[in-house]
Amino acid sequence: MWIDSHCHITADAFREDLGQVLARAAKAGVETVIAVGAGYGIEQNERAVELAARDPRVFATVGVHPHDAAQLEGEGRERLREWLGRPRVVAVGECGLDYFYTHSPREIQREVFAEQVALAREIDLPVVIHVRDRGEDAYRDLLAIWKREGGSEVEGVLHCYSFDLCFARRALDERLFISFSGILTFKRAGALREVAAALPGDRLLVETDAPLLSPEGFRGKRNEPAQVRRVGESLAAARGCSVEEIASETAENTRRLFRLC
Ligand SMILES: [Zn+2]
Ligand SMILES: [Zn+2]
Fold this sequence. Notes:
The protein is globular. It is built from nine helices and eight strands. By secondary structure, it is α/β, with parallel strands linked by helices. One zinc ion binds next to loops. The site of one zinc ion (ZN) has 4 residues, from loops.
């Protein structure tokens, strides 16, 4: 059985057929999905919270994506705290730094990320982290903030990992897990598969990040949680172990990180 540790199934892309999408996931052996509330505007967190409350296959996360960091104000802060206190909300995020698109100014992204790490510590929840950059600045700043705010106390995950082995190892030292997405399956992702092969198995997660990042063979199409197995197959091939082992190990890691029961 698989867990899709990161997907956006409450996004508009699934508005028409979410029931069928979740049924296909179950049929593909995906027992649990983590619905990330952040990423489509602060208000949309509520959809993930509500889905988790009514569907036993779903847990939710709540946060402010770096793209939306400049939108965070007083009312949004109150809403976040309220949502984070709801049942089956298991993490803060996704939050972090995105210097690739820089939809919000870097300075504000750093402040809002730091604020969310501090909040996660206060309410004792792990953190789902997004980091992207053409260079290394966002990665350097992210780890500095994580250390300064004491993030290792609550742990977290670098979702959709696509950077190098050196940084992944530094992140592991700071009690971060590493999650791989459909990028791992891409033809030209040989270097990333080498990273995946070199990391300790008890710190790895798999995700779809649906509706984005469909695996090789499906690129450009809408992604969905049923496809998480393809990421797992790629991870198994890279690590030279069985697909079943990857399924159970990544599911166990996800349960441990998010303290699922
Ligand atoms: Zn992300
Ligand atoms: Zn995401």
